[in-house]
UniProtKB/TrEMBL annotation:
This is Fibroblast growth factor. PANTHER family: FIBROBLAST GROWTH FACTOR (PTHR11486). InterPro entries: Fibroblast_GF_fam (IPR002209), IL1/FGF (IPR008996). SMART domains: FGF. GO terms for molecular function: growth factor activity. The lineage of its organism: Eukaryota, Metazoa, Chordata, Craniata, Vertebrata. Transmembrane segments: none annotated. SUPFAM superfamilies: Cytokine (SSF50353). It comes from Paramormyrops kingsleyae. CDD domains: beta-trefoil_FGF3-like.
Length: 176
């Protein structure tokens, strides 16, 4: 915005913005940096990068997802070596989840049963960040079936869960 006063032009908008930028540069820079780090971590899977991480489910008092060597899926309060997962992108918004110790992929059948297996089409999940900033994983092969843990840490059948249910809400926890 500018005002013309005789032969002088005053750029009011630019002066205000410049003063505001000088005043808040440090705090805005810190906030921007943190926001970018969070967004970068969330987008890594969207861009094809894989990360070693835990998936924390908020159900009950909280469980970490694990893939056991016998193919069983469940949750434990304290992370074990079977809880460390590699979540990797197959295409935009579609990920695979591999247990690093068990070397098995998380899969879901058409009946909504989760199990660990060698890689196949049923091992792909649609990853979505919900309004509450938790992540849900829906079967890419069988839409409407969600990965979830029960209040006692057992894998729930995906066809009994809605994406709004806390048992289907996971929080990725990266290795630091």
């Amino acid at each position: 915005m500018s005002l013309e006063c005789g032969s002088k032009i005053i750029l009011v908008g630019n002066l205000y913005d410049t003063a505001r930028q000088r005043k808040n540069t440090h705090t805005e820079g810190t906030w921007d940096s943190n926001a970018h780090q969070h967004q970068d971590a969330h987008n890594n899977n969207k861009l094809g990068l894989a990360q070693k991480q835990l998936l924390y489910c908020r159900v009950g008092i909280g469980y970490h997802l694990q893939i056991l060597p016998n193919g069983n899926i469940g949750g434990v309060h304290e992370p074990t070596e079977y809880c460390w997962l590699k979540v990797f992108s197959m295409q935009w918004g579609v990920v695979g989840i591999k247990g690093l110790k068990s070397n098995l992929y998380l899969c879901m059948s058409s009946a909504g049963i989760a199990w660990g297996s060698h890689f196949m089409a049923e091992c792909l999940f649609r990853e979505d960040m919900e309004e509450d900033h938790y992540t849900t994983y829906a079967s890419a092969s069988h839409p409407g079936l969600y990965l979830a843990l029960s209040h006692n840490g057992q894998a729930k059948r995906g066809n009994t869960v809605q994406k709004e249910n806390p048992c289907a809400h996971f929080l990725p926890r990266l290795q630091t």
